Amino acid sequence: MTLLPIATRELRIAARSKTARHVRLWTTVVCIIVGAILLVTEGLGSSRDAGAMLFSILSCYAFGLCLLSGVFVTADALSEEKRNGTLGLLFLTNLRGYDVVVGKFVARGLNPLLGLLAILPVISLGLVMGGVAPGEFWRISLTLGNALFLSLAAGICVSAWSRESARASGTTLMLVVLLAVLPVLSAIPAMPSWLDFLQLSCSPTSAFIHGLASQYDSNPQPFWISILTTHAMAWSFLIAATFKIHTAWQDKKDSAKIPAIFTSRRRNATPSRVEGDPVRWLLQRGIGLRLILWVITAAWAFACVSYFVVVGGDVEWLTIHYINKGVGFALKLIFVGQTCSFFLEARRSGLLESVLCTPVTDEQIMNAQWFHLRRLFLGPGIVFLFPVLLGSLTGMSRMGGGNGVAYWLSTTTGIGMGGMFILSTVTDFLALGWVGLWLSLSMKKPAYAPGVTVLLVLVLPTLLVCIP
Predict the structure, then answer these.
(1) How many CB atoms lie within 10 A of CB 12?
(2) Which of 226, 241, 364, 389 lies in disulfide reach of 160, CB 3.0 to 4.6 Å?
(3) Given this model, what pLDDT does residue 256 score?
(4) Is 265 found in the same domain as 130?
(5) Could you tell me if 229 and 309 lie in one domain?
(6) Does one domain contain both 272 and 243?
């Protein structure tokens, strides 16, 4: 028998497909355009400084994309097979669990790997221009590959336990964000030694930070500890998925796992809310994502409020502000996926044609979509935006001193910055919703709708208008 037959077959198919070549080409083109815009906007100045700036920004963007790859690529790899009822058919053959898991992992992870390999030569321009040591470039490259491996493995592991696409993607995102923000724990005063070791070793962000020359030259040990630990975690995710996949395809009764109080409440509450609106009923089947959103936003809000109220600080709020933008970007990605998911599944399964044959109007379908999105994201969004205003107000007030004109000017500036961020976030969500719904209905390949939506609404305006 051929070793890993599914992986071998998928690699042969990918070698002949145009998608792999397009991924390499367009990833390189986009990265070159981003690098050129950065050089022009920041000013060339000294070649050494420009190279260091280009390397830092592109490597940070690449690191974020590597961490999010598992959310969009592997989180639905096995759960999709469960929904289609084809996963159990694979085990009627002589395939083993690791054949299926590794095959899906290789098939889904090939394009992100090719994209990363296409980005690395552009990132290495900072090495050619000066300001970046060869060792630093190779350490960051190793960190990016390891972060991609960890994210993809986490996605395939969550997919083995999940059945719904939204829940699998949300759980993967929550896991990846949790691992990524562990270094924030270093801000806690008198942190226990075991907690310090946890944030140092189990976070890919720690490897990225300690891989920079400014950190690595003084103490290289944390970098290698983090690399080895996160790599071992990725393999443990794959092994866990291998053991779970044997029983994951079997149908189980939800009532055996959910307490009766919750099932009875759901049965009593759902008909009154969706009576006469079948589209709302269809959308409510994936409502479990709301709990994940509440966990992410509540944890982040608690961390921010604890930092400002308990720990305090002077200008460190800027770091929290930029991390907050990263968390907001992750929430926007979930929003895009949830916006496009209904029409993607409806077009694939033929459900959309069935709905359009009923008396349900177009307006009812769109209203049901927005009702579902508001129900999922409105509450967590308010919790997420509250620390933004608090952080801007507190940070700018401390920078302005205790009293006087400077204090009131700084406070007013903080309120303005927080208000601008809130307004920008709200308008981004509205634009993502409408563009995502339009593209998921109009594109010939609706699977590309989430990515194109993010590109049109978030990436291109930021690059063209150069808004930080």
Answers:
(1) 10
(2) 241
(3) 41
(4) no
(5) no
(6) no
pLDDT digits (tens, 9 = 90+) for 393-415: 665 555 555 555 666 666 676 67
Handedness of CA 335, 340, 341, 342 (dihedral sign): positive
For residue 47, the enclosing domain spans: 1-251
Listed range (27-31, 166-170, 315-319) with the worst mean pLDDT: 315-319
At position 245, the amino acid (one-letter code) is I
Query: What's the number of domains the chain is made of?
Result: 2
Nearest to 330 by CA among 302, 298, 293: 293
pTM for the model stands at 0.73
Evaluated on CA atoms 402, 407, 408, 412, the torsion sign reads negative
Given phi > 0 = left and psi -120 to 50 = alpha, else beta, which region is 393? alpha
Closest CA to 286 of 362, 159, 376: 376
Which of 223, 251, 279 corresponds to the end of one domain?
Answer: 251
For residues 38 and 120, the answer to whether their CB atoms sit within 8 Å is no
Which pLDDT score, from 0 to 100, does residue 149 have? 95
Q: What pLDDT, on a 0 to 100 scale, did the predictor assign at position 108?
A: 85
Q: Read off the pLDDT of each residue in 151-156 and give the average, rounded to a whole number.
A: 92
Closest of 101, 73, 110, 447 to residue 249, by C-alpha: 101
pLDDT of 302 strictly over 60: yes
Regarding whether 214 and 263 lie in a shared domain, the answer is: no
